[in-house]
Design a protein that fits this description.
One of its GO terms (cellular component) is membrane. By secondary structure, this protein is mainly α. It is built from 28 helices and five strands. The two termini are 60 Å apart.
């Protein structure tokens, strides 16, 4: 036995060593993934949990939810209770950001104002973080005055402190975004030049790349595409090596420029690439899927519309960006427009057009919305409404510089409308086609060339990366080939030995398991037989006791009455004709005795086999028993009986045993409980009957805790014999209840 166990241990250790060798040789180590909200949720309250929660909320791929709000509230309570002011401020800031993401601006203001109150109580690093958060939140809220105030404070605080050069660079970039939103473009270039200078001085290549990419994006928004693409060409190889992966932003730029020039097919391709990026932010996914719906509408390709719409509803929008909200609502309108649901399409178009947010505006999307409304009304034959919305779109085109594609959308829709309807057009509309063929076509070709050049360069760069990576992998494989062959040989030899050892041990264990199973089954069979014998012995003993009781009753009651009757008859025989002998009285007494004897014998007979049970069935017998109890005792009896209408196919011994069980419990309640009220409930289920009997008697007391009397023993044995369950509970002077469940055996087929 000891040698077998030693062999098992040795084989397991050997297999573990071999598997460890294989894993070390073939799989590189990887850092553990960052904690997700589902992991953070089950962490105990601690500083680590708070830090993990703050990191999650600062992640661009954070998903806003009510669960996240609840976790933040719990964390705030913890940091306040433990007086961790620095953590409390961080939580207040990210909670404000989350509330903004959920569209709850009032709550966001409440939390960020509370965070403001801590400004004079924090160390330098925490002050920098808080000023940055205050600038960010107030910018998103649209409070230009406060966002400018805290941006200036952060610039002044970090200006002469080299340790805060990175926050200063990020703050300068935020200032540019703030200036762009307010239309103040004068200092954009100087601020970004300063940010680029500081980024170089920081000796942080990732920060420099990220800042250059951010500047290129700003230049595109300012319609300085040539300057922007000059920067982007140099950055393409390092998009994934910046502070944050800018691949998604680059794809967004390509998609936006293709869309502006009417190349909807390529615009869709890059929107889809953005959406499918594993590291795309929640905002990027929401904007990309909305754009995919709009582009599919222009391409008249509705094959995946349902799945796009489901993703569109799932990812939502950036509640604090007018462009994102209008794009989302426009996609809703396009979806229902394609479905020919004009009512919902018009509702969503109108809702999109009416959206307003502080000083933000998106006239190009408004032109698309108004053109969509005009086209819908034109299809319905409502020319006045169609003309109204075309006129509104025309006014926006006059007022703002529109991308070529936007004007194409308007021109084509108007062209389709004017083919069948006479509409007044001013000089702008009359010369629109000519302008597009001259100016816009050149612009289109220029931007298309730039976009194609960027896309090609990115594709070539990706291919070069793949080839270089493949070359390096091949070199590594060649270097490791000899070592791998040796390792493989060692692994094969070791694995063969391990398999042989494990096979031998497994065979021994299998044989022992079989023997143990056989022994277990034999023991179980013996226990079942012994249990059946014990039940039969108990039943036999109980039956013998019952026979003795019946015999005693016959002897004491019936025998005594018969002796008196015999004595009276003998006396009558001697003095029947003698006057004054009292023969008539003796005859009457004898008659009464004979009636009592008959009644006693009848009761004993009924106790042995109730007539109602034999003649009318189980349910009638129970009702007859309850009726007799009501009549014979000063008890109020309530009963509920469900089912039991067809018990003729029940086995006779089951029916009789069930009746005896109910009879025994009722007898105990009448004789011992001193009850005045009984409640009986019997319910037939699919495969069992449940019996519930409750009385209001004296309950279970110290005097009647002995449950091993003849009646109770017979009751317990009968229930066990029927594989039933019994539960009896009672408190002194609070009554007693009994609950019994009896499985119904297979019915006897007639």
């Amino acid at each position: 036995m000891r040698s077998k166990f030693t062999a098992l241990k040795f084989s397991l250790v050997l297999v573990f060593i071999l598997m460890s060798t294989i894993l070390v040789a073939q799989t590189p180590g990887a850092p553990p993934p960052p904690k997700d909200i589902s992991e953070i949720k089950f962490m105990p309250a601690s500083i680590d949990k708070v830090n993990q929660l703050v990191r999650y909320c600062r992640n661009p791929r954070m998903i806003y939810s009510s669960d996240l709000k609840n976790l933040l509230e719990e964390a705030l309570q913890y940091t306040r209770d433990t007086k961790r002011d620095e953590l409390t401020v961080s939580l207040l800031s990210v909670t404000a950001i989350v509330e903004l993401g959920l569209g709850n601006q009032e709550n966001a203001v409440k939390y960020i104002k509370e965070a403001e109150s801590y400004l004079g109580q924090l160390p330098e690093r925490a002050v920098v973080n808080l000023l940055s958060d205050l600038t960010r939140v107030y910018t998103r809220i649209g409070d230009v005055e406060k966002s400018t105030l805290y941006n200036d404070k952060l610039e002044a605080f970090t200006k002469d402190k080299p340790q805060f050069i990175i926050p200063r660079v990020l703050n300068l970039r935020n200032r540019v975004n703030l200036d762009l939103k307010t239309g103040n473009n004068e200092k954009v270039k100087s601020n970004y030049e300063l940010a680029l200078k500081l980024a170089k001085e920081s000796n942080n290549p990732a920060l420099l790349k990220d800042t250059r990419f951010s500047y290129a994006n700003v230049l595109i928004n300012m319609h300085k595409d040539d300057e922007a693409f000059t920067i982007l060409k140099d950055l393409i190889p390092d998009l994934e090596n910046a502070m944050t992966d800018r691949t998604g932003s680059f794809f967004e730029i390509l998609s936006r420029n293709y869309e502006r020039n009417g190349d909807y097919k390529n615009a869709f391709i890059y929107a889809e690439k953005t959406f499918n990026l594993p590291n795309a932010t929640t905002q990027q996914k929401g904007n990309s899927i909305s754009k995919m719906i709009n582009l599919s509408f222009y391409l008249k390709n509705y094959s995946n519309f349902e799945s796009y719409y489901a993703d569109h509803k799932k990812h939502g929008m950036d509640q604090n960006s007018l462009h994102s909200r209008k794009l989302y609502q426009l996609a809703e309108g396009r979806y229902f427009d394609a479905k020919e649901n004009h009512k919902l399409a018009k509702t969503n178009y109108t809702k999109a057009f009416k959206l307003k947010m502080n000083k933000q505006f998106s006239p190009d999307i408004d032109v698309e919305i108004l053109t969509g409304l005009a086209s819908l009304y034109a299809r319905e034959g409502k020319n006045d409404s169609a003309s109204l919305y075309f006129k509104k779109a025309e006014n926006l085109i006059k007022q703002y510089s529109m991308p070529p594609a936007t004007r194409f959308i308007y021109a084509n829709a108007l062209k389709n409308f004017t083919q069948y309807n006479t509409v007044g057009q001013d000089t702008l509309i009359k010369n629109l086609k000519q302008e597009m063929h001259l100016k816009d076509t050149l612009y289109h070709m220029s931007l298309s060339k730039i976009s194609n050049e960027l896309a090609t360069k990115y594709s070539v760069n990706e291919k070069e990366k793949e080839l270089e990576l493949a070359k390096k992998q091949k070199q590594v494989q060649e270097l490791e080939l000899k070592q791998q062959k040796q390792r493989n040989l060692l692994i094969i030899i070791g694995a063969t030995i391990a398999v042989l050892l494990l096979g031998g041990v497994a065979y021994i264990l299998s044989q022992r398991k079989k023997q143990a199973l056989l022994l277990h089954n034999a023991t179980l069979s013996d226990l079942k037989k012994q249990h059946r014998i014990d039940i039969m012995n108990t039943l036999t003993d109980a039956q013998e006791e019952e026979k003795k009781r019946i015999a005693g009753r016959l002897h004491d009651e019936v025998g005594a009455m018969l002796s008196i009757a015999k004595l009276n008859i003998n006396t009558l025989q001697d003095n029947v004709f003698v006057s004054g002998s009292g023969a008539e009285n003796k005859l009457a007494v004898t008659k009464n005795l004979m009636n009592d004897i008959s009644e006693t014998v009848r009761n004993i007979s009924h106790a042995l086999m109730p007539i109602a049970l034999e003649k009318y069935g189980f349910k009638a017998a129970i009702l007859d028993l309850l009726t007799n109890i009501k009549a014979a005792n000063s008890l109020r009896v309530e009963h509920v009986i469900e089912g039991l209408d067809d018990t003729k196919n029940w086995p006779q011994n089951f029916t009789l045993s069930a009746y005896r069980i109910i009879q025994e419990i009722l007898n105990n309640a009448i004789k011992h409980a001193q009850a005045t009220h009984l409640f009986v409930q019997i319910i037939e289920l699919d495969n069992a009957i449940t019996i519930y009997i409750e009385d209001n008697g004296r309950g279970i007391t110290d005097e009647n805790t002995e449950t091993e009397g003849v009646g109770m023993k017979l009751l317990q044995t009968n229930i066990a014999y029927l594989s039933g369950k019994l539960e009896i509970k009672g408190e002194p002077n609070a009554g007693t209840f009994a609950l019994i469940e009896l499985p119904i055996p297979n019915a006897i087929k007639p």
